[in-house]
Design a protein that fits this description.
By secondary structure, this protein is of the alpha/beta class. It has helices at about 1-25, 25-30, 80-95, 115-120, 140-160, 175-185, and strands at about 40-45, 50-60, 70-75, 105-110, 160-170, 190-195.
Length: about 200
């Protein structure tokens, strides 16, 4: 009886660990010290718009190097938390026996300062009023959107065989940013995936 209780305890601990790993985004990112070891590439961009160095993670479909195909691109915000899950899911769903989605390139856009980059900043009209319609393009989400539009997408388009179809995925605050992108530049991405 004691052995069965011990086994049940280990099983419950394992189940709780798995649930926490996928339910709490910060926990998953704490497990990843660097780029996941697969056919992925880390790229350092010295951004002029963000005035800092930024990292992109790029995952290519398994057949990328054996074909001349072009691929849609899934851009994953909070890449340091969600890149591995998104690229694994993309490969799984595009697998030859499932064929649920087309094979795609996955680009993880990692964070430097999540709150700063994903939050729209509105200008002050006076000392007591804020212009809630306008979003500044020189800071916050406005500047981060310019970085994606003017530096990230052109880099990916230049260096990889991309199809003319882009998807943006965001979770939580990044989901708010994804909706901001859809409202501000509706033609930049063909689809938005907002998680939670």
């Amino acid at each position: 009886m004691k052995d069965g209780t011990k086994t049940n305890g280990y099983f419950h601990s394992l189940v709780i660990s798995i649930i926490l790993l996928f339910a709490v985004p910060g926990l998953a990112s704490a497990q990843i010290d660097s780029l996941p070891a697969r056919n992925d590439t880390a790229i350092l961009i010295k951004s002029k718009i963000m005035p800092e160095s930024r990292t992109l993670w790029v995952h290519l479909p398994p057949d990328y190097n054996t074909t001349t195909n072009s691929y849609p691109v899934l851009y994953v915000l909070d890449g340091d938390s969600h890149f591995q899950q998104a690229s694994t899911a993309a490969d799984f769903l595009a697998g030859y026996d499932r064929d649920r989605i087309p094979a795609m390139i996955v680009v993880g856009i990692t964070n430097v300062d999540r709150g700063r980059d994903l939050t729209p900043i509105h200008p002050q009209l006076s000392s007591s009023e804020t212009d809630s319609v306008t979003v500044l393009k020189t800071s916050g989400a406005g500047r981060f959107l310019r970085y994606i539009d003017e530096e990230v997408i052109p880099y990916v388009d230049l260096h990889y065989r991309v199809a003319p179809y882009r998807i943006l995925m965001g979770h939580s605050l990044a989901g708010l940013f994804a909706l901001y992108v859809k409202e501000t530049k509706p033609d930049l991405f063909h689809a938005i995936v907002k998680v939670r």
